[in-house]
Design goal:
The chain has about 90 residues and is mainly alpha-helical. It has one domain. The chain has four helices and no strands. It is elongated and about 70 Å long.
Length: about 90
């Protein structure tokens, strides 16, 4: 039987995604919302309603490729600087 490093890496990343910060925050938000609704605790309901959309915002921001964004911004600034220096 062969040892498949790629499959092991995929399984590790799946486990990492399941135990990620977003998953823990989502569970915390759902638990807080459920606890607040079941027991009539308004503050827990409020925090649940704030945490759950916050997780989606966090996931969207985290997904963005920031390295490519900063590289593109630096390239644009270099181009503008070269154009400014060349035009003088």
């Amino acid at each position: 039987m062969q040892h498949d490093d790629q499959k092991e890496l995929q399984e590790a990343s799946l486990l990492g995604r399941l135990l990620s910060l977003e998953a823990v925050l989502m569970l915390m938000g759902v638990a807080s919302l459920a606890y607040g609704l079941i027991n009539g605790e308004h503050i827990n309901t409020f925090f649940g309603l704030v945490i759950i959309p916050g997780v989606f915002v966090l996931h969207r921001v985290k997904r963005k490729d920031w390295k490519a964004h900063w590289a593109q911004l630096e390239a644009r600034q270099r181009h503008e600087q070269e154009r400014k220096n060349g035009g003088s």
